[in-house]
Design a protein that fits this description.
The protein is of the alpha+beta class. The chain has helices at residues 2-13, 17-23, 34-46, 62-65, 69-81, 93-97, 115-118, 135-151, 160-185, 208-229, 240-262, 282-294, 306-311, 338-341, 365-368, 388-393, 420-425, 515-528, 532-545, 553-556, 560-571, 580-590, 663-668; strands at residues 101-103, 321-325, 361-363, 373-374, 381-382, 395-398, 404-407, 426-428, 432-433, 436-437, 442-443, 485-487, 510-514, 604-610, 636-641. A hairpin with a 2-residue loop joins strand 9 (432-433) and strand 10.
Length: 680
């Protein structure tokens, strides 16, 4: 009966093969033979029906497939198409979960309306609405990888150097998939071979330590094969630098998990203690991370221009790009941030145009405050509200929570001479994009009848229309920012003749791994292994590229550990795949926190309040009254919490470090044990 259900599932998937045949191409430029694409698609689909990749009896004949060296290479190339980690998307899902961003409140589009996740409204029965998790597809991908590991050594006439390279790639991708699942559940069943109908499929769940050790062992095998290969992989392929860097990342996570075990962060939770208890020390993992990052340190260099990495077509060609994901409209599509996040452009010059961009993930003031500003008087880098030029231009005060309240005509000074990364990551009031000046100020105009004006006087690039209607916008109108900022990363500036934003897929890349991570992983591991003196230079390289001076603990007011966390947050803000959310989790767990402040509260925003032009003429909407104009008043500037229930984030229980398995999965799959704190 079980086999019949599996076969029916697979047969229903066959209709997708022909579509996949059209889209599966070698991502490095050379087309795969159509027969090969068909075979790969068929193998992939037939192996994706069972949660652990159980092999159906009516499988395609693989023996002939694995007699051809070109088909073997194309099969491994196909692993790249399935290597996307959860959260790697153009709506910045995992950034929305963190304190870097907040999504809009689309009522019928869950990719931004993450309310269920923010409030932790998920449980072991219903899961969580609107959140993509890796379980459903991970084991079919792992099965495809296991087939490669099993069959590649038997391919006749395959050069040993190429065989070793492909095995190195395969072991890397298996580690990649398991690490993605570890982020969500901690421990999962480990499948290290293609399962058949004769194998036991109720594989017990591995402990978290076992899973980390398995991942690290796979990466060691990958390194061994790459060393034996001696080849220099084509740009875009996994290489030994990528493997060492990823190994340092995994080991840092394992070190934090072991440190949490040492501090008994999860002692209050019920459930299987093998998930959260480690027999190995955190120091042993941190040393692994240090040694792995050391292997790449100094072999590459940072790109001179941070913005060019993300907002041009050149990013993938730079030495910093260790493992880029390259996009070209004629070969791959689906990653197009400008089509989602350029809500400030389409009908700014002509309000009769339809606003066809729905949604954005808005940078928070919490993030923006960390981009330091250079003081014009003493040349030191400070918080923007602490510099002499802001004090001279804006009459304001800062409260104990770091919130600014003041007024001033030339408030644009707050955005000048900032950390260079600010301009690559954020768009703000007064900045330009593709020839359009962005206005995010809020109108407080009062009409002739004594009531606040309607939308015709406001800046259309903000979610707030006027000061008496300051509740968070919902539905389609929520594509306007509520934080005062829009994302800028990965968005190339291309405008149409009518000044609207050209949302065609651009040739922009993102990076699974880049050299900046080598520097920051090395620095973190050095700090954790009491080699603080070795952490300073890598951190300064990151700072200097951003235009900042070398780190000075006395000037900054914090130690090098806090600086490491700040630089990692800024360097990878709005990156794909995002790292901030999981960095917060691992650091907080290692520090013994059961309430995570960064994920427990409302995001902060910037409000710029001005007087709008009182005109009903088309084309004049959205412009502020100039100084001396009728009704003019000095603009008001303030930062504050966006105090709306929609956006409140909750993390006040240790069980939120892990996702629950849904109840159906627990009952049907006997190898799983529910995560701590989620047992019904």
């Amino acid at each position: 009966m079980q086999q019949r259900i599996i076969n029916e599932c697979c047969n229903n998937n066959l209709k997708n093969i022909f579509l996949m045949n059209l889209s599966i191409q070698n991502i490095f430029g050379t087309k795969i033979i159509k027969g090969a694409a068909f075979s790969i698609a068929l193998v992939s689909l037939l192996s994706s029906c069972d949660p652990l990749g159980l092999e159906p009896s009516d499988k395609v004949d693989e023996d002939h497939f694995w007699q051809n060296t070109e088909l073997a290479r194309s099969y491994v190339n196909n692993l790249y198409l399935n290597s996307t980690t959860t959260g790697s998307n153009d709506y910045f899902q995992s950034e929305q979960w963190s304190d870097n961003a907040i999504g809009n409140y689309e009522k019928d589009w869950d990719v931004y309306r993450q309310e269920s996740f923010y409030k932790r409204n998920y449980d072991n029965i219903s899961g969580v609405t609107g959140v993509t998790l890796p379980w459903s597809g991970a084991y079919s991908k792992i099965r495809a990888i296991n087939i490669a590991i099993q069959r590649l050594p038997g391919v006749p006439r395959l050069e040993e150097s190429k065989l070793n390279q492909m095995l190195g790639e395969s072991y890397f991708f298996r580690a990649w998939q398991y690490f993605d699942m570890e982020h969500y559940w901690g421990g999962v069943p480990i499948v290290d071979k293609p399962l058949t109908v004769f194998d036991e499929t109720m594989i017990p769940r591995a402990s978290r330590q076992e899973l980390f050790d398995f991942i690290l062992a796979d990466l060691d095998k990958s390194i061994e094969y790459f060393e034996q290969s001696g080849l220099t992989p084509t740009l875009g392929l996994v290489n030994i630098d990528a493997v060492y860097t990823f190994k340092s990342r995994v080991a840092l996570y394992a070190g934090c998990a072991a440190e949490a075990s040492e501090k008994k962060t999860f002692s209050s939770l019920d459930g299987d203690k093998t998930l959260v208890e480690f027999s190995k020390t955190s120091q042993s993992y941190y040393e692994i991370a240090f040694q792995a990052a050391s292997k790449v340190l100094g072999k590459r260099q940072l790109a001179a221009d941070y913005a060019q990495l993300f907002n041009s077509s050149l990013g993938n060609t730079m030495d910093e790009a260790i493992f880029p994901v390259m996009f070209k409209d004629s070969k791959r599509s689906g990653f197009n941030p400008v089509s989602r996040h350029a809500a400030f452009g389409p009908y700014y010059f002509d309000q009769s145009k339809e606003l066809d961009i729905r949604g954005s993930a808005f940078p928070t003031q919490d993030l923006v405050d960390l981009f330091l500003q250079k003081d014009e008087q003493d040349g030191k880098w400070k918080k923007w509200y602490e510099t002499s030029q802001v004090a001279a231009s804006l009459n304001g005060t800062v409260d104990a929570d770091g919130n600014f309240s003041g007024e001033g005509l030339d408030y644009s000074v707050m955005f000048e001479n900032r950390d260079k990364r600010f301009y690559a990551i954020c768009s703000y009031d007064g900045s330009e994009f593709a020839g359009n000046e962005i206005h995010t100020w809020v109108d407080n105009t009062v009409g002739p009848d004594g009531v606040t004006s309607n939308q015709q006087f406001s800046a259309f690039q903000t979610g707030y229309r006027y000061t008496e209607k300051m509740q968070a916008p919902t539905g389609k109108s929520s594509c306007g920012t509520i934080t005062g900022y829009y994302p800028r990363k990965y968005m190339q500036e291309v405008a149409n003749e009518d000044h609207t934003i050209n949302t065609t897929q651009q040739t922009v890349s993102y990076f699974n791994i880049r050299y900046a991570e080598v520097l920051l992983n090395y620095a973190e591991a050095a700090i954790k292994t009491n080699k603080q003196n070795l952490a300073l230079d890598p951190i300064n390289q990151i700072r200097n590229r951003a235009g900042l001076s070398n780190f000075d603990a006395a000037a900054e007011g914090h130690d090098i550990w806090e600086e490491l966390k700040i630089q990692r947050r800024l360097e990878f803000a709005f990156e794909v795949p995002g790292q901030r959310y999981f960095d917060i989790l691992r650091w907080s767990a290692a520090e013994g926190k059961t309430t995570v402040d960064e994920l427990n509260g409302n995001p902060r925003q910037l409000l710029i309040i001005r007087k709008g032009i009182e005109s009903k003429e088309q084309g004049e909407y959205g412009y502020p009254v100039e100084e001396g104009g009728e009704g003019y008043f000095t603009p008001i500037i303030k930062t504050q919490e966006a105090d709306y229930d929609y956006y409140k984030k909750v993390f006040d229980d240790a069980k939120y470090y892990f996702f629950p398995f849904n109840e159906t999965m627990i009952k049907s799959y006997k190898g799983l044990i529910q995560n701590p704190g989620w047992a019904s």
